[in-house]
């Protein structure tokens, strides 16, 4: 089964954990490290013959347009991660509309193609932020991957959301992040901090369990997770461990994952699901 490989293309200072320490007004003064860390990923993907979906932050695209063109030229899919990396809970419909209005034209120009996919910063599409769905639809987005069907994280998740793709709006398909059910509990399958903190063997076992349930796994990561030399911020102990642990091992672990499993971008799979459901609805 082909799994879905995604990268949230943002830099080390864009992380929501740093919002109180590094506001948007100081981002331009921060060291831009995302070009080198993303190129490490591009080299790995090229070596292993893998294509991915890159959810690109508009702020980064504006400052490193050559990097985004490089990603697109290499055959990877460009999707939208917003412009300012504001979590949806800090926005309202008008501010989200303005954020997308700034990001989407820029990404379309750099990708040389329509932008159909979106992922909210920090998986912040929750029950409280469903107002965002019609805004996403108005910008021509066809699919979203912002819902984490998991109740164990303090800042995101919808504990009882469906695990399979489902229609979240009239014209928007949701590709929920991967979790598996173990002993009546939902466990995140792979990606991000989970991938860095779990033993590799656990991540691989969870992917296989996802397959047994008939679902591909959706993997996600950020370029800063492959950059062990990035600046360190004074975080509380738990957040510091969660954010910085195993940064030096992530690239090797990811290469092992690319060898062991089959991977591809999200958009083609989303299109297949949308078309199959449309045919089924027409037949009914």
How would you characterize the overall build of this protein?
It holds the Pfam family Polysacc_deac_1. With 284 residues, this protein is an alpha/beta fold. It has one domain: Alpha-Beta Barrel (TIM Barrel), CATH 3.20.20. The protein is 39% helix and 14% strand. It is built from 10 helices and 11 strands. The protein has helices at 34-48, 58-63, 65-73, 93-111, 132-138, 192-197, 200-212, 237-244, 250-260, 266-283, and strands at 2-9, 53-56, 77-80, 117-118, 143-144, 166-167, 173-174, 179-182, 185-188, 218-221, 262-264. The model has no long low-confidence stretch (mean pLDDT 95).
Shape: globular
Mean pLDDT: 95
The CATH topology corresponds to TIM Barrel
Find the count of extended strands (DSSP E, 2+ residues).
11
Return Rg in Å.
18 Å
Largest sheet: 5 strands, parallel
CA-CA gap between termini: 29 Å
- As a percent range, the share of strand residues is 5-15%
Uncertain residue segments: none
N to C succession of SSEs: EHEHHEHEHEEEEEHHEHHEH
What is the helix content? 25-40%
* Full CATH superfamily name: Glycoside hydrolase/deacetylase
Structural class: alpha/beta
The CATH architecture assignment turns out to be Alpha-Beta Barrel
Total number of helical segments? 10
How many structural domains are formed by the residues?
1
CATH class: Alpha Beta
Summarize the structure.
It contains 10 helices and 11 strands. The chain has 284 residues and is α/β, with parallel strands linked by helices. The chain has a single domain (3-27, 51-283), classed as Glycoside hydrolase/deacetylase (TIM Barrel, Alpha-Beta Barrel), CATH 3.20.20.370.
């Amino acid at each position: 089964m082909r799994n879905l490989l995604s990268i949230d293309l943002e830099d080390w200072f864009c992380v929501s954990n740093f919002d109180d320490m590094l506001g948007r007004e100081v981002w331009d003064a921060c060291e831009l490290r995302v070009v080198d860390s993303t190129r490490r990923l591009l080299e790995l993907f090229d070596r292993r013959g893998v294509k991915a979906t890159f959810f690109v932050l508009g702020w980064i695209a504006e400052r490193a347009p050559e990097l985004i063109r490089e990603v697109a030229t290499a055959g990877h899919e460009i999707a939208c991660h917003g412009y300012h990396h504001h979590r949806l809970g800090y926005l309202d419909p008008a501010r989200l509309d303005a954020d997308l209005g700034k990001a989407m034209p820029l990404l379309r120009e750099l990708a040389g193609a329509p932008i159909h996919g979106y992922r909210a910063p920090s998986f912040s599409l929750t029950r409280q932020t469903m107002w965002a769905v019609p805004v996403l639809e108005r910008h021509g987005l066809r699919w979203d991957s912002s819902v984490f069907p998991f109740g164990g994280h303090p800042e995101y998740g919808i504990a009882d959301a469906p695990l399979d793709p489902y229609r979240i709006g009239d014209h928007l398909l949701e590709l929920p992040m991967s979790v598996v059910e173990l002993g009546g509990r939902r466990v995140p399958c792979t990606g991000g901090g989970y991938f860095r903190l779990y033993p590799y063997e656990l991540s691989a076992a969870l992917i296989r369990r996802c397959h047994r349930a008939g679902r591909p796994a959706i993997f996600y990561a950020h370029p800063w997770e492959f950059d062990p030399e990035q600046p360190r911020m004074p975080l509380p102990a738990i957040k510091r461990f969660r954010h910085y642990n195993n940064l030096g091992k992530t690239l090797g672990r990811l290469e092992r994952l690319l060898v062991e499993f089959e991977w591809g971008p999200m958009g083609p799979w989303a299109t297949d699901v949308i078309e199959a459901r449309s045919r089924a609805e027409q037949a009914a």
